[in-house]
Amino acid sequence: MSTDSITRKPLFNPDGDTDVVSRRLLNFNTTNINDFNNLKYTWVSDWYRQAMNNFWVPEEINLSQDKSDYPHLEEAERTAYDKILSFLVYLDSLQSCNLPNVSSYVTANEVSLCLAIQTFQECIHSQAYSYMLDSICTPTRRDEILYQWKEDEHLLRRNTYIGSLYNEFLASPDKTTFLRVCVANYILEGIYFYSGFMFFYNLGRNGKMPGSVQEIRYINRDENTHLWLFREILLELQKEEPQLFTPENIEMIKDMLREGVRQEIAWGQYVIGDKIPGLNSRMVEDYIRYLGNLRATSLGIGKLYEGYDEEPETMTWVSQYANANLVKTDFFEARSTAYAKSSAIEDDLG
Length: 350
Ligand code: ZN
Ligand code: ZN
Hints:
- The protein is an all-alpha fold.
- It has helices spanning about 45-55, 65-70, 75-105, 110-135, 140-145, 155-170, 175-190, 195-205, 210-240, 245-270, 280-300, 315-320, 330-335.
- The radius of gyration is 20 Å and the shape is globular.
- Bound molecules: zinc ion (2 copies).
């Protein structure tokens, strides 16, 4: 067995190792028994609590204003809405399908447990998009939006790139492809959603599509915890598998991040560009590069770009919207005792 090999974890494994201290993300002889009283990775209990507190139900957000706003959006806004939603639909569908593949090689059962909760949340996100589409569109338009990659080559290229990285791990699982699929997840959660988020929040500050904005804020809050989870996985890998973090591989991770940033900026400029009131290409580029730097430094691998250290002043409203627990709305006030209980949100890992 080469040092880069990984084995899919066994299901029933009576001879598994019950020692918490020797538990590892990869190649540990796990019993698969979940035990919240003996966690090796102490961040799991905070993560779990936060994820549980974030529980929400898409249909409890009222979309009646969105239904009447949608036909009256400016043409460019409606096109952007459709394309962005189509991309988000793809991302969440792919996540719910692929996370179990990643998890089937994770031998630290408490981390697998987090990935299962993440998978559940990605399903809720898909349900939110379906509810949004069902509320604002005709069935025909709904299908056109869901499968827009059939018509839109830019979208197809993006989806293909992301899908190929995930397929690479499926086709030849080893420690290096595991590292790459984790970085790909980290980029998806921490960069790919953000042109979309900023577009929706911009609609929100212009008083349009308030229900969609609210759905997106809940999704954003969940994606923040997913980003947190993959950052922790990558940081644990640095400790447990230090041989993976050669200068070449660190450069590979930075290249993947730079490519993710490049694609997200190109996509943002394609769907938003200078056609949407309140946003422009420059704002998209500055914000996504800033996020790229934040994601890289959060992994302890240095910056990607000179400058871009602070959130651009023109974009501070994005993080205000993104912090779903800070800004009280009718919805939160009405529901605050039922869920949305958590008082702190892991805000962008800043
Ligand atoms: Zn999601
Ligand atoms: Zn996610």
